[in-house]
Amino acid sequence: MLYVIDQKPDGYPGGIEYHLLDILSVFIKKRLPVHILFPEMNSLQLRRYDDYKIHEVSYGGGRLDDHRLRDAAIEDVFNTVLDDIDADTVHFQSIRTLPLSLIEIAKQRKKKVLMTLHEYYFWCINCIMLAPEFCWFREDEETCHECLNRNGYKVQKGFMTERRKYIEHLFRIIDRVIVPSAYVRDVLLSLYPGVSHDKCVVIELGVDKELLRTNIRKTPGRKNGSLHLAFLGNFLHYKGNRTFLQLMKYFRNSDAVRFSIIGNIFDPSLLPSNKNLTIAGGYTRDKIVKTINEVSPDLILLLSNWPETFSYTLSEAIASGVPVVATDGGALRERVSKEAVGFLVPIENPLPRTVELIEDVRQHPEVIGYFRERVWDARKRLKTVDDMVGEIFALY
Looking at the structure, do residues 233 and 375 belong to the same domain, yes or no? Predict the structure, then answer.
């Protein structure tokens, strides 16, 4: 097995890297050898995990940041890598800093090829697609060219049309596409009609089973009309920090509404000095349930202004036993409505409805107890990493 990813997986890991590390942990526990290939600035690194040992070899090439479709030098290196190892399956986790042609090379070499879609890079090189608001998959070449150049991507006119045509070809030739939610599958099928439904497999992302062994407090709803709301995740624009700041401004003089931020804050200057705001700061994945329980919010706010493809933070909220207020786009809408673990607010303009919900819940705090029971039930159904990897291995 060879995994391909666009950066060192354990350097500064995000969701994609954590996902791959979760899969690798099962290979290691089962003592199954596995390779990963990733670019660094001036090399491609081939890492082998074998019997709890890591071996790493450097090849030529390096990281590409111009989103080119093909690159002869990197293709030659990739062919050399395939010559040097006996992998019969290549699984592309992310390819943002490598040429897309590596997918075609793997198929030409008679490998089984899988791709996992974690974001929307298959549609736009600006994979979060906020410019400054989500474009909802517009496909006008002129609009796309203007948007990308405005956001610092130096591409020629016609590039996006050529790229999408090539990606449609790649989707036709690969063996399987793994997506984390039905929403992403439906988006893929609508954008690339040539992709067969049978080729797309939905495998939800798992959580560490140790999180589900952590004791949580099944506290009832507040009785005094006060309400404690927590932002969960990195405090960034595409995670909804602007809406959160607007909420804080609206309730800045309130003694009955308190706010917390559980997550990394990269620009402290954004934060007001409100007396009803507490900063819990960043957290580690293995301690998140404990951290959330220490903060003890009544509701967790998931205010993403783009349609999330899965949302680890929703899984963390469920694992912690806390209901959510979430924007109604993408996988958040799919998962919150399916599990009945909280409220949905409009992704286009969440503030007015969120304010209404806060006021309603303050008047009827018993509703929090109702949703806590729903979350408790959903917690029992959360997929673990072992469950997720078992489904992926079955697919292999």
Answer: yes
Residues 224 and 192 in one domain: no
- Nearest-CA neighbor of 386 among 25, 10, 12? 25
Whole-number Å distance between alpha carbons of 358 and 276: 15
Residues 114 and 258 in one domain: no
Q: What is the CATH number of the domain that holds 88?
A: 3.40.50.2000
Of how many residues is the chain composed?
396
Q: What is the pLDDT of residues 144-169, one digit of tens each?
A: 999 999 999 999 999 999 999 999 99
Which amino acid does the sequence have at 145? H
Residues 329 and 391 placed together within one structural domain of the fold: no
User: Residue 278 pairs with which residues in a beta bridge?
Assistant: 260
Q: At what angle do helices 101-108 and 72-84 cross, to 10 degrees?
A: 40
Q: How far does CA 161 lie from the centroid of its chain?
A: 26
Strands 2-4 and 34-40: parallel
- pLDDT, tens only, 19-74: 999 999 999 999 988 999 999 999 999 999 988 889 999 999 999 999 999 999 99
Same structural domain for residues 288 and 195? no
Pull the structure tokens for residue 201.
């497999």
Predicted confidence band of residue 219 (pLDDT cuts 50, 70, 90): low
The pTM score is 0.94
Domain that holds residue 339: 211-381
Structure tokens at 260: 């917390």
184 and 87, same structural domain?
Answer: yes
How many CB atoms are closer than 10 A to CB 173?
12
Angle between the 159-173 and 141-150 helix axes, to the nearest 10 degrees? 100
Q: Which two tokens stand for residue 193?
A: 């009609």
**Do 242 and 151 fall into the same domain?**
no
